[in-house]
Design a protein that fits this description.
This protein has one domain. The protein is built from 3 helices and no strands. Helix 2 crosses helix 3. The longest helix is centred in the N-terminal third of the chain and has 39 residues. The protein starts with a helix and ends in a 9-residue tail after the last helix.
Length: 84
């Protein structure tokens, strides 16, 4: 009985260690894609998208901010001709 409890405990720990990072990556990817989609649908402006994507931009020029968001979002849709 002791062996099976130890085995279960080890298996549970391995499962937590290996599945937890994959969930975090998937969640982050979804948030990035969601933000890019909302930006493309004009639900967010360039400054809001930069903030949600945690990009560094200290300027005030909206056209430059749009270029930054466009370049960042185009990385996540490389096989599609989507104009942001």
């Amino acid at each position: 009985m002791l062996f099976s409890k130890t085995k279960f405990f080890l298996l549970l720990n391995f499962a937590i260690v290996f599945f937890n990072p994959s969930y975090a990556v998937t969640t982050k990817m979804f948030k990035v894609l969601d933000t890019c989609a909302r930006y493309r649908l004009n639900e967010l402006n360039a400054f809001d998208a930069i903030e949600k994507l945690n990009l560094e931009y200290m300027g005030q020029d909206e056209s430059e901010a749009k270029i930054i968001v466009k370049k960042y979002c185009s990385v996540f849709t490389p096989n599609q001709n989507i104009e942001f």
